[in-house]
Amino acid sequence: MRFPERLVVVLICLSWAGDQAMAGCAVSGIDHKLAYDNSGIWKRSNQLALEDAMLITTLGGALWEGGETRLGKTYGSRSTPW
């Protein structure tokens, strides 16, 4: 490739990269603030209930399955922090 052809290719690539960089700016509307929402899944009591349900499921499954089955070995793995 000669120099003018390379220059055209570089300029095309740079113009495309500039468009991609603008996609995340505030002008495009993609990155905007949301209103405060304390309902549904975002409600703190629902988050705590989900955490408790996960803990009960994990401990109950580990006790029910034991350490001999494939699922029991998954529940009783060493990846737990305790």
Low-confidence stretches: none
- In sequence order, what are the helices and strands, one letter per element? HHH
Strand content: under 5%
Number of helices: 3
Query: What best-fitting shape do the alpha-carbon axes yield?
Result: elongated
Per DSSP E runs of 2 or more residues, the count of β-strands stands at 0
Instruction: Report how far apart the termini are.
Output: 63 Å
Class of secondary structure makeup? mainly alpha
Biggest sheet overview: none
Mean pLDDT over the residues: 76
Any overview of this molecule?
- This protein has 82 residues and is an all-alpha fold.
- The chain has a domain at 40-77.
- The protein has helices spanning 3-22, 44-65, 70-75.
- The chain is elongated and about 70 Å long.
- It starts with a helix and ends in a 7-residue tail after the last helix.
Summed up, what is this model?
The chain has 3 helices and no strands.
List keywords for this structure.
82 residues, mainly alpha, elongated, 3 helices, 0% strand
Itemize the secondary structure elements and their pairings.
Elements: H1 3-22, H2 44-65, H3 70-75
